[in-house]
Design brief:
This protein is of the alpha+beta class. It has one domain: HIT-like (HIT family, subunit A, 2-Layer Sandwich), CATH 3.30.428.10. It contains 2 helices and 5 strands. A 5-stranded antiparallel beta sheet has the order 1-2-3-5-4. The termini are far apart.
């Protein structure tokens, strides 16, 4: 997806600070945070939204959630608590149409 912002970030084509990276995903801070800690966990594979998941994408969803758990520990919010969520489609608040998991916490 040539004009997808998250594809550009995951591909290293922006100056976004990557907090964590694997062969499958990247983690970076949301530019419009809704909490003291607001991270986006984004697969490198372009998947438009939850509605576009295919059976072969199940493993990446698990990796997104597990990475959130690991990042909560790194951000020291694992004990105080945090929230994980996906926005799905425009009516569900999705603004960037590339699957991503929000992790917020730190209050």
């Amino acid at each position: 997806m040539g004009d997808c912002l998250f594809c550009s970030i995951a591909g290293g084509k922006t100056d976004t600070e990557i907090l964590h990276e694997t062969e499958d995903l990247v983690v970076f801070r949301d530019i419009n945070p809704h909490a003291p800690v607001h991270l986006l966990i984004v697969p490198k594979k372009h998947i438009r939204s939850i509605n576009d998941l295919r059976p072969e994408d199940l493993e990446i969803v698990s990796k997104l959630i597990y990475t959130a758990k690991e990042m909560a520990g790194r951000m020291k919010i694992n004990e105080s608590g945090y929230r994980l969520f996906f926005n799905v489609e425009k009516g569900g608040g999705q603004v960037i149409f590339h699957l991503h998991l929000h992790m917020i916490g730190g209050w």
